[in-house]
From TrEMBL:
<dbReference type="InterPro" id="IPR024607">
    <property type="entry name" value="Sulfatase_CS"/>
</dbReference>
<dbReference type="InterPro" id="IPR017850">
    <property type="entry name" value="Alkaline_phosphatase_core_sf"/>
</dbReference>
<comment type="similarity">
    <text>Belongs to the sulfatase family.</text>
</comment>
<dbReference type="GO" id="GO:0046872">
    <property type="term" value="F:metal ion binding"/>
</dbReference>
<dbReference type="GO" id="GO:0016740">
    <property type="term" value="F:transferase activity"/>
</dbReference>
<keyword id="KW-0378">Hydrolase</keyword>
<dbReference type="GO" id="GO:0016787">
    <property type="term" value="F:hydrolase activity"/>
</dbReference>
<feature type="domain" description="Sulfatase N-terminal">
    <location>
        <begin position="56"/>
        <end position="470"/>
    </location>
</feature>
<protein>
    <submittedName>
        <fullName>Sulfatase-like hydrolase/transferase</fullName>
    </submittedName>
</protein>
<keyword id="KW-0808">Transferase</keyword>
<dbReference type="InterPro" id="IPR000917">
    <property type="entry name" value="Sulfatase_N"/>
</dbReference>
<keyword id="KW-0479">Metal-binding</keyword>
<dbReference type="Pfam" id="PF00884">
    <property type="entry name" value="Sulfatase"/>
</dbReference>
<keyword id="KW-0106">Calcium</keyword>
<dbReference type="InterPro" id="IPR050738">
    <property type="entry name" value="Sulfatase"/>
</dbReference>
<keyword id="KW-0732">Signal</keyword>
<feature type="signal peptide">
    <location>
        <begin position="1"/>
        <end position="20"/>
    </location>
</feature>
Amino acid sequence: MKYLATLAIIVLSGTTAVWAQNYSQQQQPFQGVVGNTVSTSKEVRPHNIKAPQGAPNVVWILLDDVGFGATNTFGGVINTPTFDNLANNGLRYTNFHTAGICAPTRAALMTGRNHHSVHMGGFAHTILSAGFPGYDGRIPSNAGTIAEILRENGYNTFAVGKYGLTPDEDATDAGPFDRWPSGKGFDHFFGFLGSQTDQYKPDLVEENAHVKPDGRHLNDQITDKAISYIARQQAAKSGKPFFLYYSPGATHAPHQVATEWSDPYKGKFDKGWDVFREEVFARQKKLGIIPANAVLPERNPNIKAWNSLTADEKKLYARFMEVYAGYLTYTDHEVGRVINYLKEINQLDNTLVFVVIGDNGASKEGTLNGDVDRALFGKPLPEDENIKYNLAKIDLIGKPEGTEANYPLGWAQAANTPFKFWKQDANSEGGTRNPLIVFYPKGIKEKGAIRTQYGHVIDLLPTTLEYLGIQAPQEIRGIKQDPIQGTSLVYSFADAKAASKHTEQYYYIFGSHAIYKDGWKAGFAFQPSISNGLFNKFSIYKTEDEGWALYNLNEDFNERNDLAKKYPQKLAELKALFDADAKKYNVYPFFTWDDVINRVFSMK
């Protein structure tokens, strides 16, 4: 009896293991024959899923709050040698777009569907979500993620860094875990579930439990973990490819980095943000990143000319940018560690890499004067007091003690060169246009080339699937899937002149919204009706309604010339199209910053 009990445990354990590995197959009808006895039956054993023959590994890298013109790779002056190398041996996409803020971008990226379609019109945070289909912050099971799809097609799947898509109510060790990374297709996860975290004292999670950070910078920790996942998988010699989602908290606030990375930039930004923008703009033209006849936009409203600042302001603001630059270069270095490891194990040539440099435009959350350690929803100080307060703590910028460090708005626009405005501005290219690098030695023949086809984060999932030869599934674990809404970019890999296939795209973030169609774009810059100290943290607009603007991006890519009065019929046509998309994709009812702030006040 003891032997039989032990045998039963072994058999049941083996059955459980097979079931866990082949969960999707168990949902399919049994293909054999069940008779009264084994001799009259036909058995069909479950089998391990295999990826398509020769399918490469896939690495998705998503940075946070970077800005279009920050990296050297896209004309900036901040050193990013890893990104340079990937782009010089791959493709640079200069007309690629995000949703305009982090959680919506990440939800769209992961699912290949618009962010309101997958319920992430705002955030997974309670205060930044609402009880409507487009805003409840809960990605539904009928919108399977890239990790779920690839795992069911023979891939191992890993994620490290920022996830940002788990509802606050679920983000404890009690779960439920169906909206943690493990519940959305990842075999392993190491990082944080929220939107931002301290880089030295992160709210750290490993698999399905919070763990104690070891005191090192988070970038260092997630890189070690990513390499360990790959090493362990390769040691198993399973022949399976892997998918790695590498998503550091960088360069989202808090800007924290060791002085060995920030100090080399001392004095590099003393000329200020106006000169920075001019220099980057010239570099972008030289690289062919922007049109040769492009014109640099004016400074955003309320941004002072650098030469009008006091000596103390210049000293303070330059240090903020030195730290940010060091933070970005350090992040590039950590990405380089992953790339170099793949090269060491002879897997780099067999790895398809996508790098999205930012989940939105550069951050406008640092106030006009920058933040050293004041909380996001804290009451801002008057300008003179804020400058004095920050100057007293200038040596803490970037260090663990300066937990909320974020640069001032002048540097945010500079990092967004050649565009106007910034993160959260869904109406503006400055809020939504981010660089994309595609690298795959076996498949990218035109090394270092530029691509100008219109793209959006919902396109990366179908691009990946098409290149791997994997069909978007009709069902995942027995749940019927909604159609993928993105458009594959594979058609453009080998053809620089191919016409864009992604021809229409809406945008909406907390009131600001836009619609793109065939090179034309109409945008509405939302102005909150609530005027208070809290909102001043976010907004630099004047109090009057900015209204709708119309741009022909084919001739005016950085939105300098508003054509709304010249072409009212085109504007009306695009507004009607936005309305149709808003109904189709769950954008209504509009959930705005007014609504968010009212909720904040109601909680007090």
